[in-house]
Amino acid sequence: MSQYFEVHPENPQARPLKQAAQILHGGGIAAIPTDSSYALVCHLDDKAAAETLRRIRGVDDKHHLTLLCRDLSELASYARVDNRQYRLLKLGTPGPFTFILEATKEVPRRLSHPSRRTIGLRVPAHAVTQALLELLGQPLLATTLIPPGETEPLNDPHEIRDRFQKLIQAVVDAGACPMQPTTVIDLTDDAPVLVRQGRGDARLLGLSV
Question: What topology is assigned to 3-205 in CATH?
Fold first, then answer.
């Protein structure tokens, strides 16, 4: 049975977030709000939790999981970023963009793409997500909360609790989020590639939609 924490979307209370952070430290899976949609998250270094995350989401190891980072300095610890890529990252962070980048050795091999050695990273613009990341002191491993066999992310935390309470350990309720996943930009080639158009406006990065 998942624990349910209600927090203010702009000024989240510390106590419930500390409890959610403890659950994540203990290997639990949580549903949390972001600036695009609700996401399933777990501790970065917990192999079993990451496998559970994939199983709940219904994806294999070729599906990019995303590292939610507090800022660009933290992101740079997990991805190789040159000056051209950094300029684009500055334009899209914080915000509803996921960037595919070459993973550094700091990223466990099991978390990167099995053949490409790439990882998805983003810096969310949501007060609750940022506060939770601050409490944890490191990125969270995340995936958009889209139930297996469906195409739309879940937006209602009460529905998330009803549908996933036997599968996850915590739901952080900060009200409804946008119903769109992030815009995904692949920065591993010579030119940026728009992989998925989502909530983020790719034109902000100079890309045609």
Answer: DHBP synthase (3.90.870)
**131: closest CA among 21, 3, 5?**
21
Counted residue by residue, the chain has a size of 209
- The tens digit of pLDDT for each residue in 85-117 reads 999 999 999 999 999 999 888 776 666 666 678
Domain ranges of the chain: 3-205
Q: What does the block give as tokens for 30?
A: 């949580």
CB 56 within 8 A of CB 116: no
The C-alpha angle 69, 73, 76, rounded to 5 degrees, equals: 80
Q: Which residue has the tokens 């952080």?
A: 172
Closest CA to 154 of 42, 36, 21: 36
**Strand-pair partners of 121:** 67, 99
Six token digits for residue 57: 């989401």
Q: pTM (2 decimals)? A: 0.92
Phi/psi of residue 158, each to 5°?
A: -70, -40
Evaluate whether 72 touches 122 at the Cβ level (below 8 Å). Answer: no
Return the closest-CA partner of residue 66 out of 90, 26, 93. Answer: 93
Element (H, E) at 14: helix 14-25
186 alpha-carbon distance from chain centroid:
16
How many whole angstroms separate alpha carbon 144 and alpha carbon 163?
Answer: 15
Place of tokens 């989020």: 177
Q: CB–CB of 128/9 below 8 Å?
A: yes
